[in-house]
Amino acid sequence: MSAVEDVVTEAPAVEAVPKRAMTLGTGTSVVVLLLLIAIPLFAKNFVIFQLTQLLYLGLAVLALNILTGGSGQFSLGQSAFYGIGAYVTAVMMEQFNIPYFLCLPVAAVVCFGAGFLFGQPALRLSGVYLALATFALATAMPQLLKLNFLEKWTGGVQGLVVTKPDAPFGLPMSQDMWLYYFTLVVVLAIYIFSVNLLRSRSGRAFMAIRDNEIAASAMGVNVALYKTLAFGVSAAITGVAGGLSAIAVQFVAPDSFTITLAIQLFLGMVVGGVGWLPGSIVGAAFIIFVPNIAEGISKGLSGAVFGVLLFLVIYLVPHGARQVAILGQQLAGKLRKN
Amino acid sequence: MELFTNQVLAGIATGAIYACMALAVVMIYQAIDHLNFAQGEMAMFSTFISWQLMQWGVPYWGAFIIALALSFVGGIAIERILFKPLAKAPVLTNVAGFIALYAIINSSAGLIWDFTIKQYPTPFGSSPFLGSQLISTHQAGMIGVTVLLLIGLYFFFQYTRIGLAMRAAASVPESARLVGINTSWMIALGWGMASAIGAIAGMLIAPVVFLEPNMMGGVLIYGFAAAVLGGLTSPFGAVVGGFLVGIFENLAGTYIPGVGNELKLPIALALIISVLVVKPAGLFGRHIVKRV
Predict the structure, then answer these.
(1) pLDDT tens digit string along A23-43?
(2) Domain that holds residue B71
(3) What are the domain boundaries of chain A?
């Protein structure tokens, strides 16, 4: 091809998901919610801790889902916002003795600002170029957290220990269980917010940009504003997830927020189904439990087993858990007709 | 001024590593339109194969050629077995596949050859090159091989039928199919070539960074950065990008106070992003005009 310029019809990198297909039906939602409320009553503390982990990682995957599945922008930098959220929460709790539930909104605001600002230069980039830019952010974050002049607050390489909050009002609950329900409430609130966001004018703007940026701007969508807004919202939610993780793990250190975390969140999104919000929790389950299962099968080859399991999942359901849900729905529909 | 020239020279020497890797990255990007995250691990595995052959008494160049051939076949096999079934799956699913491949290769290499650091021989020797303390004969040889490879690839793509067919299959698959090009096999061929180029990169890099399963982690990041900086559509750009990244990295480490080794990578990446903000398709990339 000798032409210097190629003209292509822009094909969206992320397939279009209609907004109704992004959520669960009311019936299913209630069942899932009841399960989430009931399970801890019958589980050991360690299991409850793992469920808490499932919830806040699910929240981080959800945030990426809004960015990628909603507005079609790809990010490998989520670990950076997660780290900022965790550090803001930890530093406020430990150095300034501010109660944990007040730290989370602050983490959200700080991360929203960071995401919004980062979204500005990212506007010019798309596809792999955007991936590289966000990747740079992810590799820079642990180093920035280790910087000397921040050490007074962040504890440097050593990190910070966070005290676990007790259940309030003398409720007869273990710390783990209280934290689980606290996390559940936060996650639910943000889930409902996200569903509504995607159904709103802004959500429609995100999806228009995802499906075809040029067409969207021709229709009067302020592309720059909504792209940066998507970055900001996604960063804010990721920040809350990071804050919850700091409280639950009771520890933050720079090396917990490396690119590995961002890759895990990405895998969680793919396994859960890109653009399907409830899938986030399935994806989170995958990234928490499958490595353990792989280790159980073979210690020396755990990485290989994990890779093979991941391949199996993407062969069977290339569209992630969403595909399973759609199949289930169709099956249920058929049964009802018979 | 002498410090500056020295740092630039040292940058060119490390840049040669990145240029090699970037070339492999661009090759596969040309063939399949994705960045292959497992590229570095594939190169590492090829290097281990050649090392194993040398342990068994095969001379360097013999091991080199055999490893190259095996990598070529291996690359095709990976495409046929693992990624052809995913051809119709969404892009992000493919990326997840690359990550899975990364985990599999890394972990298997660790099990077969363990994680201890191994010496790897160089055919060029490691005495100072032309009396300079900063570039060794090995690094000079590496730069030479990279340039030769680039020239070879240029002739392959410009003047051979199969090179033309590969370019056609990558840029307009539908039309290529209509004129009778087997696009599916062109993709496989692209994988094979990328894998072989990666093997060359791995075998040239191994004497510098030493041989171990994680040796490619850092190199691949710089390779990606170099490829993106040069423009993913241009093999020439990738090589130039590789050298530029090497020079950037060294100069940032020397002249910006408080940078040190830890912040070298973020700063190099930040510089690359600033370049991309001005030239979004990379320095030598084709500008693509989009329409609705």
Answers:
(1) 677 777 788 888 888 787 787
(2) 2-16+37-216
(3) 19-163+172-257
